[in-house]
Design goal:
By secondary structure, this protein is of the alpha+beta class. The protein contains one helix and three strands. It has a domain of 50 residues. It binds zinc ion.
Length: 79
């Protein structure tokens, strides 16, 4: 399959870290996806998208409490 974004790259199965937002937090979820060799665009299967939805839900309802790998710092404007 050809990538629909850059229209030149071949799309191949790969493992990627999908980044999803849950309020102010972001979750990195390792999932299988089809990834473009040229531009890196990832295409998720409906199965993977369902998984991401479930992870976001579970995280929001505190069913899961994954370890944090970093913090987000906000710098005020008057600096
Ligand atoms: Zn592409």
């Amino acid at each position: 399959m050809k990538c629909v974004i850059c229209k030149t790259g071949e799309v191949q199965p790969d493992t990627v870290q999908a980044e999803i937002k849950a309020g102010c937090d972001r979750l990195l979820v390792t999932v299988e996806a089809e990834v473009c060799r040229e531009c890196g665009e990832a295409y998720y299967s409906s199965e993977a998208l369902r998984l991401l939805e479930r992870v976001r839900d579970d995280f929001s309802r505190k069913v899961i409490a994954p370890p944090s790998v970093g913090k987000v710092y906000q710098i005020p404007m008057d600096r």
